[in-house]
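pipeline: protein-struct stage 2 | run 1193 | TetR/AcrR family transcriptional regulator
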Amino acid sequence: MTATTTADPAQRKVTRPRADALRNRERIVTAAREMFTEHGPYVPLDEIARRAGVGNATVYRNFPDRDALVREVVCSVMDRTAEAAEQALAQSGDHFEALERFVHTAADERISALCPMITSTFDQNHPDLEAARERLEQTVEEFMDRAKEAGQLRPDVGVGDLMVVVAQLSRPPAGTDCLVNDRFVHRHLQLFLDGLRAPAPSVLPGTPVTVEDLRRPCD
């Protein structure tokens, strides 16, 4: 009879983090996302720990430096927003309605915090960031293409146009509370969405903005 091998308890602790440890990590990321949006990526880490309700040691145990925390926040926002887009694609038979649901969810996920953090704090080519960014961009592009094919979305807008406006409209002024801005952001986003509907009442200057255009350095 062959003996059954049992995993060592110490090994299980390493490979399967405790539920409370996972909750602490999520609280840190949520608090960091809120504070980065309100005050920028250089907010003191002890302030983030205080808002998350954990000790400074817990923050550093999960994220050895600021770049690691900022990168986790950016990837988390991108992943959650991509999931919202994927769910909207799967659940709605109306392509423009799916677009509306995505835009409002993106605002709730604080996607506006991404722009200053990506450009100022860490390697834009980090593999985690590239994977999250590619997933989001491909999903949104598919989503907009379907709405254009259905004759619901004006043809002269690109993914870059959408992402820029969502970021600009959903980012509160520096030093203000996110919850205060929430009273207005969905109203303003809906005004923007109504301007995306086809047929378009006007001709936009220039050409549709792509995500590649957003990454291209200014001359």
